[in-house]
Amino acid sequence: MSVHLVYITTGDAEEAREIGSELVMRHLAACVNIIDKMESIYWWDGRLETSSEAVLLAKTSEDRLDQLIATARQLHSYDCPCIVALKSEKGNEEFFDWVKSYTSK
């Protein structure tokens, strides 16, 4: 079995909470973590930008991944949000089972 860790950057912790709460309430993620006050440096519209963002980490199963990505994209305030899924095949199997049980409802 595998679990996907989905890395999403947001404008602030409040947006991360709103998106994260929806993902968990809809059983698209078993849980999310929010890391506030991350500094980002990036290119946007031909200019070098710096901003403070929050990171949302969502844990989900393979069968909910596409719907989680679509929902996060729909709820997100950015034109081009960073949503990156990383597949994990190794880890605590008990945790993997827990993720699967809460994303299969």
How would you describe this protein?
By secondary structure, the chain is of the alpha+beta class. Helices cover 32% and strands 40% of the residues. It has a single domain, classed as Alpha-Beta Plaits. It is built from three helices and four strands. It has a four-stranded antiparallel beta sheet, covered by helices on one side. Helix 1 (13-25) runs antiparallel to helix 2 (65-75). The longest helix is centred in the first third of the chain and has 13 residues, at 13-25.
Structural features:
105 residues, Alpha-Beta Plaits, 4-stranded antiparallel sheet, 3 helices
* N to C succession of SSEs: EHEEHEH
What characteristic shape results from the CA principal axes? elongated
The percent of residues in helical segments reads 25-40%
In the predicted model, the low-confidence regions spanning at least 5 consecutive residues are: none
- Look at the structure and give the mean pLDDT: 96
Report the CATH topology name: Alpha-Beta Plaits
Structural class: alpha+beta
Counting DSSP H or I runs of 4 or more residues, the number of helices is: 3
DSSP strand tally: 4
Distance between the termini: 17 Å
The radius of gyration over CA amounts to: 14 Å
Main sheet strand line-up: 2-3-1-4
Question: What's the quick description here?
Answer:
With 105 residues, the chain is an alpha+beta fold.
Blueprint of the fold:
Layout: E1 3-10, H1 13-25, E2 31-44, E3 47-60, H2 65-75, E4 83-88, H3 93-102
Antiparallel strand pairs: 1-3, 1-4, 2-3
Helix pairs in contact: 1-2
